[in-house]
Amino acid sequence: QVQLAESGGGLVQTGGSLRLSCAASGRIFTLNAMGWYRQAPGKQRELVATITSGGNTNYADSVKGRFTVSRESAKNTVYLQMNSLKPEDTAVYYCNIVNLGVPYWGKGTLVTVSS
Question: What integer is the mean pLDDT of 74-81?
């Protein structure tokens, strides 16, 4: 089994910053992509940012220049630094990892940006 422990969500004002963390544990063999998705109320889950084992990153257009995804492979941990937050960034953020080709999801952490 693989467990994902997310942390770092909360309430922040417009223009503020938050840093999300997600640590994977359990039967971790080869972590391929790691990243973050989000789901706002009434909307579908969408990609926010991903990072491969080689360090290649991919971002949603809506967060480019404001969010930075990084990983600490030795700790099986992925981070999401979120700056210049906007009310439209309000959502539940989910960590996602791919271990030996199998995707796993965290339980989600709520980010609320007040205007």
Answer: 94
